[in-house]
Structures are given as C-alpha cells and as structure tokens.
Amino acid sequence: MKKRVRTAIFPVAGMGTRFLPATKAVPKELLPVLDTPLIQYVIDEARDAGIERMVFVNHPSKSAIERYVLDDTELCASLCEKGKDALARELQDAALDRNTHDIVFVHQNEPLGLGHAILCAADHALPGAVAVLLPDDLILSKKGCLSQMIEAYEAEPVDHMLATMEVPRETVSSYGVLSISRHDNALAYCDGLVEKPEIDAAPSTQAVVGRYVLDGGIFDTLRGQKPGAGGEIQLTDAIAADIGDKTVAGFRFIGKRFDCGSKDGMLSAQLFLAQQDARFDHVIGDFLSANQQMNVA
C-alpha cells in the first residue's frame, strides 16, 4: 500500500522571545520577509505538496495567526470597493478558505516543547504519516522542501524522515544531529539522534532542520515520552526512541535554508530575497554606494 502524507502540523504557539519587543504584539510567524509573513511560506509549501488537512497548534494569545490564515471576506470586499481588486485577489489567493480547505486550529496552552505541540494535534491527524513544518525555518527552492520529502518518503522504506543539512562543526550544539549508519543517495539512514551535542561529542555534522515526515505511530511514542531538556517533551527524543523499531533517515533537500528564528537568519533572508528582486536593485545599489563613499572618506 502506498504511503500517503495527508496532514500537515504547524507548531505556532511559541512566544518568539528572540524578537522581543516586536513579538510582544505581533506573532513571530507573522513577521515579514520583505512583504510575505513567515507562515505564508510554509502554508504555500504544504499546499504545493498536496496536503489535505492543515492543523495549526496555536496559543490563545495569538489570535492574529488565525485571522491571517483564514480568508477575510470583509477586508477583500472593502478593497474591491476602493478599486483595489488585484490586492484583494492576492489576499484571497494567500489565505485558506474553510469552504475549500480542511483547516483545524488547536491550542497549546503551556510551552511544554515541540513534542507536546505535535501531540496536541494527534486527535485531528488523518490516517497515515504526518508532516511537520516549522515556520521559523524558511527553505527556498524551486520544488518545495516538503514536496521533495514526500516524493522520497512514498518511494523509500522509511518511517520517519527528517530534513537535514550539513552544518559547520562549531554550530552542531544548536541542532539535533544524526548518527549515520549508511547513505543512499539523498537519504542518510541513522542509528542514533542527539539533541544539541557538544562539539566534540557530535556523531556527524548532518543537522536536522524544520521539516519532518513522521509515521503516525509518533503520537503513541510521544504519549509515553518523558520530559527531556528544559523539562519539555522533545520531538527529537521521541524520534530517537523509535530508532530500532522504525527506520529513520535524514533527507538532504535541495534548497537554501534560513534560520528566521534568529535575527541573523532573518536579516540574511531579507537580503537574499531582495537581491533576487529587481524592484530592490536601486536600494541595494544605493546602500553599497553609500558604504563605499564612507570607506573612502
């Protein structure tokens, strides 16, 4: 039977403390990269991958996310009355409409970890494997990262698939890191998974980033998972606990990833996308010219 990935889970309940004071009023997932909020990128990625149901694990204080995600017919009607039909169509295309999309919002009331956030979505997942997309991780590619992963997942004998990338060894303590038993093209089958290891203890430099395709049994594992680092239920710990009973592999995606949960990563993403858009050539040109003049002076 062909493996199907029908559900995507978006953990969006985090407080975004690294971007305070901005995130005191604006959820971090709505911070824009140029003019597109982070959450829009993962919504589009899931839609392009053929996901049937989208489950947003939110926090009660972040109602702005629900307002952004859902189609706002009143706003679009107001824009049309003002002759801004193109802008109204753009908003409608970006939004999710309950009449045509299967959308669920659930709440994670306490910050009990990524694993706990995934578990909050358990009752709403369709049968089969589930995808998890972290909006903090912006992955730009011609073919979406999740589409790449689902294509490989459905073709290969893998239960849990994790998006991975090679990182400098001095940064491994910021990631979950694979212990690799063998490579097979884009897949790195692993016999262990270590969360934020010390540099000298890291089993490799293949690091997990914010895309997962997980066998539906992950929910049972999470239910029995004891709190780990920070007293939280860690998704990495649950995946590691399944190794041996299930096949776990890293997937080396094609694309460019930005850690937009950090200020450095967000700025890098802004500059990268601005460079790809001719509308901003004059801004970048003016900045570089001013910089050169300052250096000469």
Topology:
Blueprint: E1 5-11, E2 32-33, E3 36-37, H1 38-48, E4 53-58, H2 63-69, H3 73-81, H4 85-94, E5 102-107, H5 114-120, E6 129-133, E7 137-140, H6 145-155, E8 160-166, E9 176-184, E10 187-195, E11 206-214, H7 218-223, H8 235-242, E12 248-252, E13 256-259, H9 263-276, H10 281-296
Parallel strand pairs: 1-4, 1-6, 4-5, 8-12
Antiparallel strand pairs: 2-3, 6-11, 7-13, 8-11, 9-10, 10-12
Helix pairs in contact: 3-4, 5-8
EC number: 2.7.7.9
Family: Belongs to the UDPGP type 2 family.
GO biological process, one term: UDP-alpha-D-glucose metabolic process
Task: Considering the chains and any ligands shown, give keywords for the structure.
297 residues, alpha/beta, Spore Coat Polysaccharide Biosynthesis Protein SpsA, Chain A, nine-stranded mixed β-sheet, 10 helices, 33% helix, globular, EC 2.7.7.9
User: What's the gyration radius in Å?
Assistant: 20 Å
- Percentage of helical residues? 25-40%
Sequence of strands across the biggest β-sheet:
5-4-1-6-11-8-12-10-9
Mean pLDDT: 92
The count of β-strands is 13
The fraction of residues assigned to DSSP E strands is 25-35%
In one word, what is the shape?
A: globular
- CATH architecture classification name: Alpha-Beta Complex
Span between N and C termini? 69 Å
Catalytic activity: alpha-D-glucose 1-phosphate + UTP + H(+) = UDP-alpha-D-glucose + diphosphate
EC number: 2.7.7.9
InterPro entries: GalU_uridylyltTrfase_bac/arc, NTP_transferase_dom, Nucleotide-diphossugar_trans
Keywords: Nucleotidyltransferase, Transferase
